[in-house]
Amino acid sequence: MEPSAKQDKSKSKGGVSVIQKPHHPPVTAAKPNPPPKSNSAPFKRRRFGRKFSQTPARKDQKDRTASLFPPQKQKPGVNISKGKNQSSKVEEKPRLILKSGIDTGWIGTDESGKGDYFGPLVIGGVHVDSKTKDLLLNMRVRDSKKISDSVIKELDYQIRSVCIYSVVVIGPEKYNLLYQKMKNLNTLLAWGHARVIENILLRVDCQKAIADQFGSEDYIKNALMEMGKKIELTQTPGAEADVGVAAASIVARAEFVRRMEKLSEECGFPLPKGASEQVDLVARKLVEQMGKDALNRFVKLHFKNTIRATVQTPIQ
Known about the structure:
With 316 residues, this protein is an alpha+beta fold. The protein folds into two domains: 9-22 and 98-263, Nucleotidyltransferase, domain 5; 268-310, no CATH class. Helices cover 35% and strands 19% of the residues. The strands form three sheets. A seven-stranded mixed sheet has the order 1-2-9-8-7-10-11. Strands 3-4 form a two-stranded antiparallel ribbon. α3 (149-162) packs across α7 (243-267).
């Protein structure tokens, strides 16, 4: 089962999409049941002309009334107050991610699409603690490179259901613009990793993050902002052995696969992954049908595939 648009909260700004788990809407509590009617009145009434006045009831009547109508227990976390019309008004705070100093867990980050000519660059981050770690291990979460696309989508849905996560998607057009300014893929990657870490830290108290090392450790450290600079950041090759990084790789890969499917529908034929000769043939077909300028919407232009797809000599 694939997560629907209602299950994810997505923000898009300038070609960069940020997807993360939404807060659950507040739960509306049921109105308390009215007390049962009774023939015995707690007050005596005396009539004077057209008006009524009340006199206090005897002590024995008060005791009997209290036994007939015991006070209702209020549900924890729900504030029930009554307005002028005496109708029950339920006020409940929305569900928040509470900070904990006992088990803060850690954040794992990984990317997808870095070596693919077609499609976006996707960076995913997943927060893991002792409880969610056991759940992820039971799901057999592992490096996304060892999982088929169909299984990736199912695991992605399960991970998003139990973990706090964030996904940053840099579409081809925005990717090409940023790469033209930065002139360095590692700088762009570091920005994406730092962004998902910062997004998760806004929702949970955490003191540690683990990322797959793709260059100098200073890339991500320099890209982190105020909250990110306070945590312990570990960068190591083969970090997918960590269940948090493996979960992040699955979330990122699943989003990359979905974006590739949308791009394939847009151009009218399947777009292959990677950067092989088969990719060159499809890129040439794209140029022939939609023009050279259309490449900017589908590919990462700094790849050498662009030169091979736009030269006049046919590809053998």
